[in-house]
Specification:
By secondary structure, the protein is of the alpha+beta class. Helices cover 34% and strands 21% of the residues.
């Protein structure tokens, strides 16, 4: 009922957008399954992508507080190339703009006018783990007792190396081209999607796929 009320009051059918029409508004709506059917959801998604690349010229347009929401949507929808394109932009607003202007921590605002040591809401880091490396926890088995490895390929990224300490030991993922090396700690299992639709559930050990 709540989703239906939100859709009824905030959806603009003429533009396929919610609320103020920002990418953040669209991501929230899609993540919470507000569109009442798949056709509407597809229209909202298409408009979001069109705005990201067109209206906002492939730059972040969600504000730093909105980055975790946008990141979560990109991971879920496998929008790896979109996120990579935004991260590679050298100018404002973007992370490379911060770095090129001396940042060693995340700023509070894209232009650096407020705090320059403001690491809260730095949700973009999740994309490197959960999208590029494909490492996702299984909520049914907390603490990485069971986890997923489902890398999302990205144009221009040929290798990925990730380590994740857990109570069972360290998970290690190394991707080089189409080859994947994986360390599954003792006492855990991993469900792996090695570049195909065929999943494999692996016990503890060192694996090359």
């Amino acid at each position: 009922r709540l989703n239906a009320a939100i859709h009824r009051h905030f959806y603009h059918p003429e533009t396929h957008t919610y609320a103020n029409g920002t990418p953040l508004d669209q991501c929230y709506a899609l993540l919470m399954n507000i569109p009442p059917d798949s056709a509407t959801a597809a229209q909202v998604k298409a408009q979001l992508l069109d705005d990201c690349y067109g209206k906002y010229n492939a730059h972040f347009a969600v504000g730093l507080v909105g980055v975790p929401v946008f990141t979560e949507w990109c991971i879920r929808e496998r929008q790896t190339d979109l996120m990579a394109t935004l991260l590679r932009q050298p100018d404002y607003p973007g992370y490379l703009y911060m770095i090129d202007n001396g940042a060693t921590t995340t700023w509070e605002s894209w232009d650096g006018e407020r705090s320059r040591v403001h690491n809260c809401y730095n949700g973009v880091g999740l994309w490197f783990y959960q999208a590029l490396a494909g490492l996702r926890p299984d909520v049914e088995h907390p603490g990485y007792e069971h986890f997923f490895v489902d890398p999302q390929r990205c144009v221009g990224v040929d290798w990925v190396r990730v380590t994740k300490p857990t109570r069972y030991g360290t998970i290690r993922i190394e991707i080089n081209g189409t080859k994947l090396k994986l360390t599954v700690p003792e006492g855990t299992t991993a469900t792996v999607f090695p570049g195909t639709d065929r999943e494999q559930t692996l016990p503890a050990g060192e694996w090359e796929l």
